[in-house]
Amino acid sequence: MEKVVLAYSGGLDTSIIISWLKETYGYEVIAVTADLGQGEELDPVEEKAKQSGASKVYIEDLKEEFVTDYIYPTLKAGAVYESKYLLGTSMARPLISKKLVEIAEKEGAVAIAHGATGKGNDQVRFELGIKALNPNLKIIAPWREWDIRSREDAIDYAESRGIPVPVTKKSIYSRDRNMWHISHEGGDLEDPWNAASDEMLMLTVPPEKAPDQPTYIELEFDKGIPVKLNGEVLDPVTMLEKLNDIGGANGIGVIDMVENRLVGMKSRGVYETPGGTILVAAHRELELLTMDRATMHHKELNALKYAELVYDGLWFTPLREALDAFIDVTQQNVTGKVKMKLYKGNITPAGAQSPYSLYNEDFSTFGEDEVYNQADAEGFINLFGLPLTVKALMEKKNRS
User: Fold this and answer.
1) N or C end of the chain: smaller count of CB under 10 Å?
2) Could you confirm whether 13 is annotated as catalytic?
3) 50-101: pLDDT as tens digits
4) Distance, C-alpha 39 to centroid of its chain
5) Among the options 174, 183, 267, 354, which is catalytic?
6) What is the CATH number of the domain that holds 65?
7) Domain for residue 366, yes or no?
8) For the chain, how many structural domains are there in total?
9) What is the pLDDT of residues 248-270, one digit of tens each?
10) What range defines the domain where residue 196 resides?
11) Is there a catalytic annotation at residue 175?
């Protein structure tokens, strides 16, 4: 019996896929679950996978690798998709693909299967990752093959075969959770006129229910990487877990957006990214203090491309690696401390310092100084504005 490795989450789609793969292809199904910080969601995964028909279950602890090798590069890049989405699902898919390929090779599997739909981005992310790492493996995407057309159909399929699933027709949100975020899609969110309900939130309190007093935190970075929280050295996983708790308690990081999917349609989702939102904001403040104007502006251009690459599933590409090399150079002096004020969903800078600060009070002061000759500005403006002067003279000549 040939083997197939399935990216298994324990959710609706992947639960019924085990049964479908056995019925349709006659494969032995090996379920692989990536532990990216889903917490208690993983407790029933192994038993559920075996009840659904998997012959073997791998639950791989990838939390630290996820933070250090995927989240941190994206954080340093300043990559935010369409100015809002912090790429929580997008960053996880290449790591999951890498692990799927490793286990498929170890088990001698002929194929890898995933539960991404034919309308979504994840099908591209999974499959590009697999192709980049082992193009000889067959890829099976049941949503592009079977006659199931909706989540309601999928629930009916599960019920007809006695497969336990975590959703009902009344609670039908499609969710993806890891250490960085949780996403919510589907159901009443498919109408962008519908406001997202507070009851949907799982990591974050609504701002109205956050404390009435602000919370202050201090983050310390070394070359763009967070290393201390409130003076305490923390490993990457613990750092993010604590920031998620602090941010969630203060209503930080809830994003509601209509985004442009890679496959050509718009979709609406709600994302909770409490700790990640804090890190992105703090990292940006330290860059503003330590990075020169030309480098920062060019990095901002690269950040847009980096976000697009990650969103589109192009992690294992020469361009992403080349951008990382540039970004690492820009981060050499992004070292120092940042204070942030958290209050009812808002993040406000409350101070920053760095041994590599390019802010010089002697030059910037509005008071009396001995280092800057303000008369020098006249010549600079004359030269900087020379093209405007020449154009204006030409237009005046042609009007006369």
Assistant:
1) C
2) yes
3) 999 999 999 999 999 999 999 999 999 999 999 999 999 999 999 999 999 9
4) 18
5) 174
6) 3.40.50.620
7) no
8) 2
9) 999 999 999 999 999 999 999 99
10) 181-291+333-353
11) no
